[in-house]
Amino acid sequence: MTLKTEQYVINIGPQHPSTHGVFRFRLTLDGEVITDVEPIFGYLHRGMEKIAEGRNYTKNIPLTDRLDYLSSMINNHAYCMAVENLMGVKVPERAEYIRVIMSELQRIASHLAGIGFFLNDIGAFMTPLLYMFREREKIVELFDMVCGQRLNYNYMRFGGVSMDLPRDFLPALNKLLGQLPGYVDEYDKLISTNEIALVRAKGVGILPRELAINASAAGPVLRGSGVRWDLRKDQPYSIYERFEFDIPTGETGDTYDRYIVRLEEIRQSVRILKQAVSQLPEGETLAKVSKLVRPPAGSETYAAVEGPKGELGFFVASDGTENPYRWHVRAPSLINLTVIREMLLGWKVADLMAIFGSIDIVMGEVDR
Predict the structure, then answer these.
(1) pTM (2 decimals)?
(2) How many CB atoms lie within 10 A of CB 19?
(3) For the chain, N or C: smaller number of CB within 10 Å?
(4) What whole-number percentage of the chain has pLDDT above 70?
(5) Domain count of the fold of the chain
């Protein structure tokens, strides 16, 4: 017997605490089944790109911290690269290595938060998240050691970094690198074969390979769908071509694959960090750059890095003044969200937060 039901619309958000900001779904439901999705952005909008065009180049470095604020070091790196391209600045070898060290530590910290919040979303209340934050705290302490900040670092500068590594940094980092593989194995045993996690994530929210490519998805969302694309390998920047590491990919593009890719990327970041520490040269950490940056009029550039959430790029155009003429961010959280409707259709309301959490967004770089 077929029951005649009437579809209805409900709103989820914009107050949900696990979105790292404010985001709203307007869902059309048939019972508990999602038949249509309207994602609604804009509650956090701060006009950061337009604000940046009214500030000089150097003063915009702290703005990048506040995009994906779980990836501040990598945000610094991408923007500094863009301005260095405009200025023709060569970064000293030691500074390049320090940038890679900070970026890979930041990638690990971001993935730890992403996995922890995702598991919180599917009902593993607090325990895995606190496990992840145990190690993330150690990384934050390392960042605090080099620049005195724990969230928004403002550490990188055009031509290098603001200061060299303190004496105690490398011993503390080496100690952490010795511990992390064991901790990652611990997460793996706790989560990857857990029957509840498997039921909530395996086969759920599949993003087909072709759709991921056509939607310009990036990072673990793209690689979870089986696409082996990582800017550190495919369009090498900084000194990443000097390191040996693998690019983890998924098979089916489901919620579970996106989790596994992030977990494996932590292991690969540890590999990169060990190589960077062993190769770290002596020398200067900051090139000589004018305090008042004025790139040539008419020059423009796009510089991109592989952020924890995917390709993070800055387009910067100069009119010869001390302020950028155009300042635009290619934000991976926003791009990855463009496929959320296709990922949710046909699934139930209970699956929504699992699928949404597996994208791992930060609204600071969406509503920028």
Answers:
(1) 0.96
(2) 22
(3) N
(4) 98
(5) 1
